[in-house]
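User: Hi! Is it possible to get a structure for several chains at once, not just one? Here's what I have:
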Amino acid sequence: MNRKILNIVVNGESHQVLIEPHWTLLQVLRNEIGMMGTKENCLEAECGVCTVLLDGKAVNSCILLAGQVEGCSITTIEGIGDPEHLHPLQQTFIECGAVQCGYCIPGMILTAKSFLDENPGSRPSRDEIREAIAGTLCRCTGYSKIIDAVATAAERMAISGGSQ
Amino acid sequence: MNAQNHSVAGRRLPRLDGVGKVTGKHVYAADFKLPGMLYGKVLRSPRAHALIKKIDTSRAASIHGVRGIITSADIPAIRYGTAVRDTTVFAVDRVLFVGHAIAAVAATSLEIAERALEAIEVEYENLPTLFDPEEALNSNIRIHPNWETYKALPIIARSGNIAGQARIRVGDVEAAFAKSYKVYEHRFTTALQHPGYTEPRVATADWDANGNVTVWCNTQLPFDTQNTLAEILDLPSARVRVTVPGIGGGFGGKLRIGVEHFAALLARKTARPIKVMSTSEEELTAALPRQASVVLVKTGVDKDGHLLARSGKIIVDCGAYAGSGPGTAAISLQVMAGPYKTGALELEGIAVYTNKVHSGSFRAPAGPMANFAMECQMDMIAKDLGLDPLEIRLRNVVKEGDPGPSGEIHKSVSIEECLRKAANAIGWHDRKPEPGRGKGIACSWWMTTGGSSGVYVKINPDGTATLVSGAVEIGTGAITGAAQILAEELSLDLTDVNATGVDTQAAPFDYGAQGSRTAFSVGNACLAAAAELRRQMFELAAKQLDAPIEGMSLQDKHVIAGNKSISIAELARISRLAGGGLIAHGTAISPAPPYDPTRVQNHPLPVWNTPSYHAHAVDLSVDQATGKVTINRYVVAQDVGYAINPTYIEGQIEGGVAQGIGQALSEEIVYQDGRVMNANLTDYKMPTAMDVPEIESIIVECRSAAGPYGAKGVGEPPCIEPPAAIGNAIAAATGCWPNSLPMTAEKIAAALRVQQS
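Assistant: Yes, the chains can be modeled jointly so their relative placement is included. Here is the combined structure:
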């Protein structure tokens, strides 16, 4: 197999990975770099659990070839906060009861982060949040508490002055 | 202890596994890996019913990187199954549905395994097919020609293509029909629905030097999976260890073995660790979905709408293997009786084989199917008699002490309260005729499944507690709920409790995360463990404080004896040095209530434990041109007995209703000529955030005798009523009664066109 070197930055750390041309970003993140917080399910960009931020924008890592992200900066769920320093979205997802099985949650939080970062300081309506997260399927929650969590985080981030 | 004085139980505290889940640190079975691990893939049949004339794996085996291939010829000839032992790991001599496993390959990469599947040559000879469950009842074609040789639970009645047949009979139904003022007869159909968990079924297996196998997987029932694996592998179950690192949803779809057996068999064949994970296509063609069904209901009433007689028949299409079909057909009988007093009943549930995917126990199996038929007919009767749909229900609902369908006694009954609260919240009495807009109501009851639970609870030297349970936390928050009960009893904070993952080798037995029982049953086991720990701590404190045990209490993490006290942490440290530590084994079992066995035939769940009662009300609009339904408001009033954690109870209600809305309006695994036409998540339509309205939960607390602090089962009920409530609201909005799930815009628009012409 024709392997090539991929240079990417993941959560602020630079990586050189030997990849095969057909590998997806999801495969590289999970199998080569060990960022297991990025989940896998449909592998067809239909469910959204594999969502990561590519230069700040939410993308489905399961259909992005790794070779397409040469030199790019990737943020996974591990890169936005840790147990001692939770991101406001991570905090409100816990507080609002938005987490059940949790398998969609990393993708959901990153989707929400990308949406809130596009409009720093905004207080989006519930309908706007619904539309923003509609690409990520959650089978446990019925979405209401996820919307609560995103709205609450948006409010806190607006008060504290924009993006985090 | 008085529930009003609780400081941990009953409170909206954050779940114990929340931080791990929002930071990506929670390990799911799909994340688990071992060094040198191989990847497994399963070859599945493209034919619906055919003889296998030849399987040639030689070309596949010669591919570089392929480490092993197995077919039915390589494994013990064993049939397994819960009600009927009709299932094999691989198709034996014949395939029974498109998606039937034929062979499995182990390779050094997924890509190589996939290439190897393509290189396996199989020759088939087609057999006549059976796709329609009603046709299958009377057909001469046999899906299982040797069905008589299969073992089954003695209670299961089988014959030909019928995998199970149960009955409930109360009184003289023919005489009651004869006395009825009016008799109504309707037919409904429901569709095959996938549980829709976001983590596919996955397993990693590895054998040790002593011939023991460990399987890391996402089963809801580790002990059932352990036993089934032991049978398939022809080993004592103690040599099979099943562990669940974490599970991304289940909803009943992960009760029975999924891919664990493929992983264990391939790992044995190759002597290497191996991981097998389902694809979305395999999930939608070869997992364990909710059965499609045909429901026939005939009801006789008096002039005032009192139910005098009901006969009902549900035909459950269980696919190529019985799976949970016989149980589902049987449970549907209690659902068809409903939370109503009916003079006479004659209910029959039949599970029948077809050449389609075998099915499972998706959340409240039978609940939404039978309830859709029964509760939509209730509204049809009300309309014909000129009665309000709420009023006809209130005239018929059971009251405290009334007999249920099996002759059991209804206790802590709250159905009237639930109906009135849901109706008031939706503005039932303010209904105005408005074209294209309507309100609907439906109610039901449901069991809290029994089965035993054991927990070990250990007090650590820092005064915290470790909770070891054999029950999987599938996301409901049930283990957090059980930990709240434990913390309450030991005067700890919830965050002082550390709940471990499940490992069949280390954990006490638990009947599993199923049937709305986990918080209920594990909670009861925690009560028992806490009582034993209090005994141990008081005994030790009596020596340390030189005080009598009588009058001792636990407060704020201390044992208090008069004006003396000692901390739990100190007692744990002392016990470590002197007595092997503070540890308790708490157990719980809910015995089935007494019932009248003459009413019930061939029913594996003849009487319901600790039933809950609930009512749903919906306000929706129907686009008169397209048939598209928009839900404006949705209200649930559900009796949970005692709300251990209201946040996660609301979560169960909101999530269950969302699944019910999917079943009502959009979800169907669509078969055409035995082939699934929508085996992907674009064409299989689960509700997105744009499709689910805000769901308003009204938590009713009518304490049970058996549950911890009076709790009842919570998880399954919310998905039962949505199809009926939505169907009734669609009828109120359009005048057209849907009788087939899902009630797609296409079906509603077609009905509107018929009505207009």
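Chain A has a mean pLDDT of 96. The first strand of chain A starts at residue 4 and ends at 10.

User: Great, thank you!
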